[in-house]
Automatic annotation (TrEMBL):
Residues 15-171 form the HPP transmembrane region domain. The chain crosses the membrane at residues 20-38, 47-67, 73-93, 139-160. This is HPP family protein. The keyword Repeat does not apply. Keywords: Membrane, Transmembrane, Transmembrane helix. It comes from the Bacteria.
Length: 199
């Protein structure tokens, strides 16, 4: 028997030209700034990896800003935590298929524990293992520069681009609950499943 009590969701309608333009401008400015900052200390190979991770972040931040994965806590903590995990795994096991799989696996667990799930964070962990030698030389500082700084820049751009001529406010929340804070479950921020992902 089919359960008709559950809401069914079809394809999301295309956003208005205004929303598309706002997303495009935000993504271009955010990625341009992150690319420039990263270029100051990374070679072209490492820059390609790094921009790949933030390219995925740009899609969430500027095209689906109401997603729970596109909130500042998730973007910043998700990227930094995952990058730290990736560096630690590389230091222990080097760069190989096992390290790559382990880094992403542990990064997922770390993001879940800190309520900071941000899918592109998995790429930050993977890059820490499989990146070029100049990236490996950064050690744990990689998690803060260029990853942490890049995340902050993307968030700062989103604060402007997502709120210009927009009746909705971004972000939905600044701080997410962690396992310790779950003593008060009613404070956990949620996004209704039927909400339009574009403000």
């Amino acid at each position: 028997m089919n359960d008709t009590s559950k809401p069914r969701h079809g394809p999301v309608a295309p956003p208005s030209p205004h929303k598309i333009l706002r997303s495009a401008i935000g993504a271009f400015i955010g990625l341009s700034l992150v690319g420039y900052i990263a270029q100051l200390m990374l070679n072209d190979e490492s820059l390609t990896f790094e921009i790949g991770a933030f390219g995925a972040t740009a899609v969430l931040l500027y095209a689906a800003p109401l997603s729970p994965y596109a909130q500042p806590w998730n973007v910043l903590v998700g990227h930094v935590t995952s990058a730290l995990v990736g560096v630690a795994v590389f230091r222990l096991f080097g760069a190989n298929w096992f390290s790559a799989a382990l880094a992403v696996t542990l990064a997922i667990a770390a993001m879940q524990l800190t309520s900071s799930i941000h899918p592109p964070g998995g790429a930050s962990a993977l890059i820490a293992v499989l990146g070029a030698p100049d990236l490996h030389q950064l050690g744990f500082s990689y998690a803060f520069f260029p990853v942490g700084l890049g995340a902050l820049v993307m968030i700062a751009v989103a604060l402007v681009s997502n709120n210009i001529a927009n009746p909705r406010r971004w972000p939905e929340y600044w701080l997410a609950t962690t396992p310790i804070a779950r003593l008060h479950p009613q404070r956990i921020p949620t996004t209704p499943p039927n909400r339009d992902p574009l403000p």
